[in-house]
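look at this stuff:

>
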Amino acid sequence: MRGVAALLIAACGDDSAGHGFDAGADAGVLQYRACEEHSRVGSFDVDLAAKYTGVQGQVFDGVVPSNVLSTLASEGGCRHARAPVLFCDPACVSGETCDADGQCIPYPVAQDVGTVEITGLLAPVEMEALPPGNFYTNSGSLPHPGFEAGADIALHAEGGVYEPFDLRGFGVDALAVEAKEVVVEAGVAVTLLWTPPTHPGPMRLRIALIVNGHGSIGSRIECEAEDTGVFVIPEALVTQLVNDGLSGFPTLSLSRTTSDTASIASGCVEFRVQSALVLPVSIPGLVSCSDNEDCAPPQTCQSDLTCG
């Protein structure tokens, strides 16, 4: 159907035994919980990528103001959001950032939360905060995929600057995409179709449509969908986003995610187990470019990576 971007996402996984959850009683124990933007100070992620399974994380002593987007409109589980305009007069000095109230505050600093252990993967993971940015990452090699679909996964941080905390995750089925790209245009809703997971659990499909990632607007559509196999990004939000401005190389990212949260002194920490992918977006009339050779003369490649 013209103008409707339909993509098929297939869930793949095996039916082997030994999973910590099932679709019944156990699946209800762990619920999907995500941090609010205004309180999120960090996260730990187990990422099931195409060729590897990675683990990483970082926890800060405050919320980074630029990460708190402004919601312009919302509908049907989605919002049209824009990066905040932060302005301080006089300008902030090194080591500071401007907050939403126009005040200079110390720029949040990553903290050591002690040894972080993750169990339930197909190999043990134990991480220490790495200098200079107290960044956590798995130093060893994990099998790939690094966990079984439906696995009961747990994270324990022994505590450092903050108190210890515990979080849980769920082994998500991998996402596989048949479509090569998604067509987006004003006046048309974007319909997403996928195969539900073979191991249902406390997960969501997170969606981000970005058509101005290389421009000055910094707007996007963000959605959280039930993992049922179909979701529609409302036409009104798509139209608003396209009319907000375009830049080169627009994308649609999707992530099948399970999320749990813990509250510490500085805010909310999130633990996500996810399978994510990014699809290119085609917008009628938009030609993306990296240099002038990508454009048909007399057009040239502009600073927003579009031919014009």
In short: Helices lie at 235-244. The chain is about 5% helix and 40% strand. The longest helix spans residues 235-244. Residues 1-28 have pLDDT under 50 and may be disordered.
